Amino acid sequence: MGKLATVALILIVSVVVQLGAPASTTVLASTTVLSSTAALTSTAALTGHPPVVLVHGYTTRGSLCEGINLASYWRGAETELTVRRNIPAADVLPVSFYKCDTNGVDITGSGPGTDYPTTRTSGGAHPRAGYTNDASIVQIARDLAWFIHNEFTRAGRPVYAVGHSMGGLVIREALRRVQIRDPAFPPALDVRIALTIATPHTGWAKECHANTQCAEMTPGSRFLADLRTNRRPQGSNTTAWWAMGSEDDGKTLLCDGIPTDSAMAIRGVHLIYVDPCYRHCQYLNDDAQERDAEGSLALRGRHSLAMLGHVLR
């Protein structure tokens, strides 16, 4: 066992003795002890499964505070990964960036040399430098990139990344900027699997200029033009891309609101549903385990959350 992993295990045992709690409980509850890269490395040695980073989508609250309760937003995905796929809860990380996000791992302000805790904010706690939807997707991608690099890549840990809606654009932009060696981004990211769910890769089916993020996702925007230069950005050790969406008839958006062509506009495995025909957030809630879904061959009958678990297995 490496020196970092040995030190981290000693720390974990110490906390268990002090608190008299099971190790699994301690990993979740101890923000201070397990926030370091060394502790993260030990978890990898014990589980052998890459951490899964969950990146949420766009929201707007009008004059209210933008934010999402990530405990409810990702509940179905977390149950699939931790209960059915046996991935430790400490390795499933829903990240937060809006100023009123709750119950997520705060990535805001990440940059060279930062080593922020990977434990979730609790209760009404909000991100350090939380954004509104007038923050550019590029800024959020930068924070995500530095977070993954500082906490995982530089410690030798690959990650899997899942992005719902705008979250898929955040992941894609993070990898694209690192690949072109943008000096504002870290030198490397080791993302082995990237799954986008209902992501408007070429824009959504409307024009919107209400705020920066809405405008950036409007077809024809400069942001989307830059993204088109690389439809399959790669991490330092190859990234396998998967895209999930629902079928439309080319004229009417029957369910999702994101055109099929837009959701599938990356080079990778395309997961297109016909039945169920999911609405935009329903992908994150269908936990059916029957193999009766209809759509592209790659689905093999799996419903959305079962397919997510299969991709990240």
UniProtKB/TrEMBL annotation:
GO terms for molecular function: hydrolase activity. Residues 52-225 form the AB hydrolase-1 domain. Gene3D superfamilies: alpha/beta hydrolase. InterPro entries: AB_hydrolase_1 (IPR000073), AB_hydrolase_fold (IPR029058). Keywords: Hydrolase. It holds the Pfam family Abhydrolase_6. This is Alpha/beta fold hydrolase. It comes from Nocardioides immobilis.
